[in-house]
From TrEMBL:
The keyword NADP applies. This is NADPH:quinone reductase. The keyword NADP applies. Keywords: NADP. It comes from Haloarcula hispanica.
Length: 127
């Protein structure tokens, strides 16, 4: 939840993550590097700044971090992923977190929130 004032403390108290999925690389790459475990992997999913980089390269090198640039549109086989998710949901082993729900008329607001807001969980549009 990027809006938390105590985000760094919350992450550190939960234990340094081995994998970080970052949709806001422009704003949080330095933060990711700070809280990541030794040898962690950062999946860089979204950014708009072409110059997004680490603020402290030697510290990142010392942690042996790796950054993997990922596109949400290059997964070769969505069927297997969706099938696995369906199985996990059916077995109650996966519970999605819904941050907000929107009526169909509020799709522009939902889209705006995806681009500009900070939230933890999924945004859901219902007809």
């Amino acid at each position: 939840d990027y809006s938390r004032d105590d985000l760094a403390d919350a992450v550190v108290n939960a234990g340094a993550p081995d994998v970080i999925l970052d949709h806001r690389l422009d704003d949080y790459l330095a933060f990711d590097a700070e809280v990541a475990a030794q040898g962690a992997r950062i999946a860089a999913i979204g950014n708009t700044d072409l110059a997004a980089t680490f603020e402290n390269v030697p510290r990142c090198r010392a942690k042996a971090l790796s950054v993997h640039h990922v596109s949400m549109f290059n997964t070769p086989e969505f069927g297997a992923v969706l099938s696995r998710l369906a199985t996990l949901m059916a077995d109650d082993d996966l519970t999605p977190v819904v941050a907000r729900r929107y009526d169909l008329d509020d799709v522009p607001a939902a889209h705006n929130d995806v681009l500009n807001d900070s939230f933890l969980g999924k945004l859901v549009v219902t007809p």
